[in-house]
Structure formats: structure tokens, C-alpha cells
Amino acid sequence: MQNFSDRLVRIPELTARWRSGGLSDAAYAALYFFIWQIGMHGPRFASRKVKSDPRPDASSWLADFDRSAGSELERVLVDRIERYHFFGLIPNASVALSAWLRGEWPLLLTERIPTPGEVLEMQAAGRRPVTVVADYPRLLRPVLKKPNGFAFFVHDLEHAFKFFHDPNVHDGQRKFFGLLRETVRQGLLGPYLGDPVFREKFDYLISDMNTHVIHSLRFLGAILIECILRREGKAPHETLSSAAGDELAGLLQILSRCWMFSPAAEEAVLRLIDGGFGEADAALIERAVLQAS
């Protein structure tokens, strides 16, 4: 068994093969996954889901991958991913990788970390990025808040699962990201984006928060309230002044009209901050988001 560093040194070779057209994006990502997984965990890298399947053998698997190409390679990769558990990973990541290989989820391979604005554009178009950091030894060092390139790669796969796995939730997310994109294009949050705390949290919302539309809208309301409270010199648990409350309500009305919500949906959005928000309001907003062009 090769040691950890020896395996990872091979990743730039894979990258060259991918850049020359010898590997599809999904196959390249899957091989990147296996080299890291085997390099980090050795014989423990995987376990059987069904006892009648052969025990996972790293050397044998890598040889199978080396012997295969094109659609046959993708078939072999899907077979291994779907029939085995992988040490240290939640299943969501391998589900996303398999769906990518099958052509079911339109993931976008990137070699650099997209900006939050770029991720917003991708999500509004119904796609999610997966970043592969392949340069050795750069891939061993932290990537944003993750300890190495592999952890960041897996994080992207987990977000892909959250974005795609439920078709109804996916449609809502995609439409809501489209509304946020239009909000940014029109500069409607300009006065608040100058606040670095709000900016950081808004960037999180548009690039790293894949959840139900109502949760996302609540989060947007919460960070707007926090931003206005900071401007008033107040703590997060304090209450907005009357003038600040009017400002927030006015902004939410502007956003609702930018999003072409009905008057009833606009009132439901206002109840998110005024109180009395219920299931009927949530359903009304969900329909309004899904009907957005």
C-alpha cells in the first residue's frame, strides 16, 4: 500500500488527463475522491453495504479504474460508489457523486473557488459548483474554513445533495436564488451590504445555504434586523426603533414588488417580522416564489 503523500502526488496526473479530454468532469471528480479516500484511510476507506459483495480492496479498485475509460470507467465508478459505504463520510456526498456520474444532476466542476456572486448565478440557473483543488501540495492546506482540498470538495458535494435531492425543494431554491440575483442586480440591498457583518452573512445565504425557501427568507429578515440594530447601536436581542421598523417594512415591500409577489404574498412577507406568521403564509410565499419568472 502506497503512503498518503505518494497517492496524492498522482492527482496532478489525473488533472492533466482530464484537461486533455481523457476524463469527463464527473469521472475526474470521482477519481479525485477515491485517491483521497484511500490515501487518508488505507484499508478502512470503505465497507460493504451487503455482505455478499466482495470486501473493498484499494489496490484492486485502483487497477480497475486504470483499466477502464469513457462510459465503462463511469459505470465502474458508479458501481463502487453505490455498493459501498465510505469511512468518515455521510452518504449525501456519495449520492451526489453518483448522480453526477449518471448525468442526473448538473454539477459544475471548477478549479478555483467561485465568488458568492458566481455561486448565486449558478444556483439561479439550476447548477451547483464542485471545486477540485488539485495542485500538490496546495491541496493539503486549508481551503477557506476547511482543513484541506478534499474536505472542501466533500462540502461541495454535500451542498449539491441539499440543492438537488428533493425536486420540490430544488425548484423553490432555484427560483428564490433567481429573486435574490435580481435583488442584487437592482442594488436594493446596497445600503446594507456596506456593513461587513451583513455582507458576510448575505454571502453565506447566496452561496452556502441550501435549504427551504421559508428558512432562507427568515434568515434574510433576521440579518437585516441585526444590521439595522447595529446601526442604531443596539444589541441583537433589542427592539428596533419605530423609524427602523418602518424602514425594514418598506424594504420588504420593495423586495416583494421586485419579486412580483401578489399583495397577499407581500403581506405574508411582512408578517415574518411583525409576528403572526403561520402555515398559510408559508404556503402563500412558496407559491409566489415558484410562480416567479
List descriptors.
single chain, 293 residues, mainly alpha, two-stranded antiparallel ribbon, two-stranded parallel sheet, 4 strands, 64% helix, elongated
The gist of it:
The chain has 293 residues and is mainly alpha-helical. Helices cover 64% and strands 5% of the residues.
Report on the structure:
- By secondary structure, the protein is mainly alpha-helical.
- The protein has helices spanning 4-8, 11-19, 25-41, 58-67, 70-83, 91-101, 116-124, 149-164, 167-185, 190-193, 196-208, 213-231, 242-258, 263-274, 279-290; strands spanning 46-48, 84-86, 107-110, 128-131.
- It has 15 helices and four strands.
- The chain is elongated.
- It is 64% helix and 5% strand.
- The strands form two sheets. A two-stranded antiparallel sheet has the order 1-2.
- The protein has two domains: 4-164, no CATH class; 167-290, no CATH class.
Question: Which helices and strands occur, and which strands form pairs?
Answer:
Layout: H1 4-8, H2 11-19, H3 25-41, E1 46-48, H4 58-67, H5 70-83, E2 84-86, H6 91-101, E3 107-110, H7 116-124, E4 128-131, H8 149-164, H9 167-185, H10 190-193, H11 196-208, H12 213-231, H13 242-258, H14 263-274, H15 279-290
Parallel strand pairs: 3-4
Antiparallel strand pairs: 1-2
Helix pairs in contact: 2-3, 4-5, 5-6, 6-8, 7-9, 7-11, 11-12, 13-14, 14-15
